[in-house]
Every structure is written in structure tokens, then in C-alpha cells.
Task: structure prediction
Amino acid sequence: MRQVIARTILALRDLSDLAVALLVAGAIGLARLLPEKATTRFAVFVAVSIGMRLPLTRKVGMKNLAIAFPHMSLDEHRAILEECWANLGRTSVEYLFLDRIWDFDPQTMTGSRVRFTEGSIERFLQLRDDGKPAIIVSAHLANWELPMVAAASHGLDAAALFRAPNNKYVAKWLLNRRRVAMGELISARRGSVHQLASVVGEGRHLGLLSDQYYIGGPIHPLFGCPTRMNTTFARIARLHDCPVHAVRVIRQGDGFLLDLSEELVFERDAKGRIDIASAMRVWANLVEKWVTEHPGQWLWLHRRWRDVDLPKS
Result:
């Protein structure tokens, strides 16, 4: 009897997931038929109108801003969160048009919506053509998917981690769609770190978003407050002794500016290996700099500073 009940529950959940997936697919299909700018304006309006009223904004977003920017007023914090929600609204629509957004031409070094900071395109092409592996670390700023779109569009052999939605039908559709525009994506699951390391071991490039709270990760300060950070990029770089670059996306109206750094410089231990703690300090300082320059473009709605058991002195 219990088995029958369990199978029935699983079947109902599967039907529910399928129904949701069909609704999502229909909504996406309709949205792609509409003008992108009109769809974006509507998405921004909905995101800001609803998002600013959610407990998530008050309990997570405002708390995060109080930690990162204690010198700012509540009104300034709210303004940043409104921009954060607006960015999410724009990004949600841009997912539907990833195949249309990327218009940068490396031959003419121009694009109507996409540009690179000075020196970035040269560094990008060098990474593509030097035949060496590298890790490219990034943060949840503006539309953080665009670096992988750049890689796929211009022949940079790269792979990145993909966190699939819980709905298996939506996850499969989204993964297939993103692969068209973004190249190889590795599903986040148990054992995926070994897959990520193997990408570098094969002499390729690995893209990682590394600015969120990482359960089980070591404690490092971010904006002066302890949090558990994701050291995966540093550990893989240490294992393969490969260079690490950082890339960020800056939203500029309807367009984007991509900024690819020179190789990041980390301290080395007595055996000449990359020092993990040094790598995390360099990365945390860079994230702080990026976020301070464009605070409204960061994803403030993630619980980065959770209660942790700090080591006793």
C-alpha cells in the first residue's frame, strides 16, 4: 500500500512539473514574439513592484547592504535594491534573447550592444589562442551569463558550472537552450568538482561564479564580515598550476561592457604552490571593488553572510 501511495505521489509531482514546464515554454514562446524592449520594460516593472514588497528584500537584501555599506542610509539601500530587482527583470528577459544580444565583431572591434574594456579583447583572444588552460572567475553582476556567450561566440574552448532548476523538464529545456548560446555546461551535482578539474587538466578553460556563500567552505571576510567562500577555483588552480583571470559584466543601458583582467597574482607557499588563503583575499578584494563601483548590479538577494560557527581564538 505504501508503495502504491509513493508511486502515486511521484506520478502527480511529475504531472505537475510537466504542466509547469508547458506553461513556462508557452510564456517564453510568446515573449520571444514580442518586441524585446517592451517585454523588458514589463519585466522590470513586475520585478521591482513585487520584489520590493517581498520579505526576501527586507530580511536578506537590506541586511546584506547594512553589512556591506553601513555608512549608507536606508533610502540609499532601498535604491540599490530597486536597481537590483530591475537588473533581475532585465536579465530574465535577456535569457530569452541570448542568441540575439551578442553582436560583438572581433574583426572590427565593435558591437552595438556589447563592448570590451581597453585591453580585454586582446587578453580574451590570447587566452583563446595560446593553447594553455586557464580559470576565469566571475561574480553575479549585471548579466553574468554573457562571458560564456562570449566564449561560445568566439571559439574559446570553455566549460562552466550549471545549476539546474528543480523541475526536470524546465531544467532539460533550459540546459539545451543555454548550451546553444553558451557552449559546454556542467550540471552542479555530487562529483562535479572532479569534472571541473578535468576541464583544466585537458588544457581547456573553466568559468566559475565564486561570489556566493559556500556551505562547508572555509571562512574568509567579505566586506569585513566573515562568510564561507567557494575556494574551488583556487584549489583547481593550485592543483594544475594554471593562471586565473577575472571577468565582470557591467550593464550600460541596453548594452554591456565586459572587463577581463590580467592574470591574478597570488602568493605561493614554500613548495611554490598557490596559497589558497592568498587567492581568496585577492578575490574578495576584487569582488568588493566591483560591487562598490556598481552596487545595484550585484545580486543582493542571496544569504552571503549566514550565521557560522567561528573558530575560537
